[in-house]
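Write out this protein's structure.
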Amino acid sequence: MHTAAIDPPGLQWLRVSRKYVTVRIVEWAIGNVITIGLFSLPLLFVELGWWKWPPLWLAVAVPAAFLLVGLWRLVLIPRQVRAIGYAERDDDLLIRRGIFFQRTMVVPYGRMQYVDVAVGPVERVLGLCTLKLHTASAGTNAHLPGLPAAEGARLREQLSARGEARLAGL
């Protein structure tokens, strides 16, 4: 995994499963079909003669623009998934993500209130899960998608135990 300037030195980053690309592509496909379908309605209405406005060129240009943006996002999905990683340290868990706008989040074990493992329908079929970390701060949006189910269960138990141990030591 490529290290960013904001990453602490000397860490061994673990990656999420490559199968997570499939989850993201399914999400992408559903979102784009709905979006392009909705923005194509004016084109359909103009072609059927129900609407006189917008002009035909605009009715074609808007869904075409959304299609181009959607295709660009599709091209980025594999790279975005490769950029997601995590590292366990003695006192905290680090989560990193992002290509253009990189982010490394540090979640101290002592701040964790509970650890949640969620599974959607596509993730379930692929044997993946999403680990969600809930802390005392409402602003913490720590989640780690695309983990193999066994790794998610292991992390849930390990992080919960470490969090309880750190809280007991306060």
